Amino acid sequence: RIFDEQGHILNTLPLSDKNTNVTLERQTLVDLLKSYLDDELFHFNHKVTHVESNGTTGTIHFKEQSAVQVDMIIGADGIRSQVRQSVQPKNKVQYQGYTCFRGIVDDMDMLKPIADEYWGQKGRFGIVPLLDGRAYWFATMNAKENDMHFKKFNKPYLQAYFNHFPEPVRKVLDLQAETAILHHDIYDLKSLSTFVYEKNIVLLGDAAHATTPNMGQGAGQSMEDAIVLSNVLKKYDTLESALKRYNRLRVKHTRQITKRSRQIGKVAQKANGLSIKMRNRFMRLLPRWVMKRQTQLLYRTKSE
Question: Which residues form a coiled coil (predicted)?
Fold first, then answer.
């Protein structure tokens, strides 16, 4: 649900009735995925400096360890990817004009498993229910990149900043531990025309298509990438054919999601009073089926 800063509902964004939607902490997901792999497959504290390939053999260079040679390099090293920097040095992250605070609280006791957002002139606040009475929250405010004003924000600053927002927002901030608030600016990545380079270097997740968090699709699209890549490697006889199919399935789809997420952020972060009145009025008049179409793109994906 989307509310204005007085708590009046602007609209609802229904999810697909045919799919199960689960929200869990990132660390829980990481631990779950790791549990299916043998410990010897992990090599921690290996900082990649760059990669290269002759089209047949890929070489990964590390800051401290010796380089290794492999048949294929999968760059899944995030928005600041060193793998992407090696193959696309001119591609840069794009600051989106707002900064974000995040946290997780206990004992929220939300009555329904419904995610809520509150859109106001000074910023936006979201609350997402987790398991066992916990809740994830985020707050976004328009800001300059690396804005020193917001770098000094702590719990009391946030409480004062959002003091005029509805009771659920104030309750979340009251419950939040002082030392467990995360803060970072919001970026995305200029769309790439391909995720495959030198025949055997492939980008995956944020390294390929980092997006703003407005649709909650960062980790989701990364997992879709991994599933598709695994499936095509099993299905096709040659690496070239498999990666060509991966490109076809993932580049256009993730580009659309990144673009739409960026657009949602621009609408939600409006700060001009007249623009906000026009936006809120428009949001209230939008039919439910139009809102539902905003999420249908997420389900139009192929696994191989």
Answer: 229-256
